[in-house]
């Protein structure tokens, strides 16, 4: 290992370029209107919302309206209902939902169109009298705070207005039957919204609550890092435009399930994560990405028997050292060793559409594997291209095209020399030894099945300023 004072010098020499990411939510799960309506539609199906509509008590609801105490209205109800033997919804469908922003901040409007057919039997005619009903349920989703001060999403309002109700007689019959049917539909105008509120809105509420719970479970599933894991927990929700944003905190665990690092939120404005129209996106802050990389690639020394592993590079190194000190070059034997001691794991630097991995290493050259004192020690700052992509349901990492930004002689036992003269051969050593080692550690990637859980087979990673984003692949 390099002595402490060497590390101190190296830190001061290289520290200026590794800029920490600005604080912001550690992770943000951004749900667009498309995902919200798809998942809510699925939950409505699972909660048998159409069955609820088919069981609406149309006849009893109209009978209940006679309790208004208005004599003229009571007489109308009685005169109409005496002709009705049986009445029910015969078919029901929930049409495509609409999710749109509200005029108020931290609020969404969900519109749920209903399409129904109903019919009644009357002794006045042998066939069923059928009519068509269209209406729309409006629900408001808000960010609210509990008594303890914790923010949560709530479907706080659900109703159907008579203004959205449209009733149409499907088949015209006799004048008398048409008149009865018209009066029945007139009675349904005030009755149906109340039935929707009483019978369907609780189903919508439960469907929304289950959808919200599913989103929270999906975002907080532990991610295996082998060894260790990355765990998320819910911070608070927000609504922006037509999107729901779930802010998450994170923690890193070691192989013994002990917490090694916490990631929390800051006061960075949420507008940094402006929705871009994608159905969903998962955004990881830069320091969270670095923690994952550090867990996969711990800062370990790498010893390379250069003549056995990379003989051509070994010969080029000997030629380069010969330019500095011929006597030293002649001492290089077949067991010559290059020791690469990273000061830390690669640090990912994320900027708009660009990702680099900055690395600070101490590189030492030993004449044989028996030597305890190196010919020289070099402080090197290198960077490489960082690639993020998906294979199946795994996030994959890869480093390419390493280059040396700065190189400095730290200790020399073969006389002083300009370290820049070795920049070319040192770049080859890092590219031939360090990168394959690190990419080998990253080879398996990490499991991340959130896209498939939302119904998307293909997803992609893209780079933002200070963050990494997962979203569905473009079709």
TrEMBL record:
It holds the Pfam family LBP_BPI_CETP_C. SUPFAM superfamilies: Bactericidal permeability-increasing protein, BPI. Keywords: Signal. Residues 36-272 form the Lipid-binding serum glycoprotein N-terminal domain. GO terms for cellular component: extracellular exosome. GO terms for biological process: innate immune response in mucosa; negative regulation of toll-like receptor 4 signaling pathway. Residues 1-21 form the signal peptide. GO terms for molecular function: lipid binding. It comes from the Eukaryota. This is BPI fold containing family B, member 1. It comes from Nannospalax galili. The lineage of its organism: Eukaryota, Metazoa, Chordata, Craniata, Vertebrata. The gene is Bpifb1.
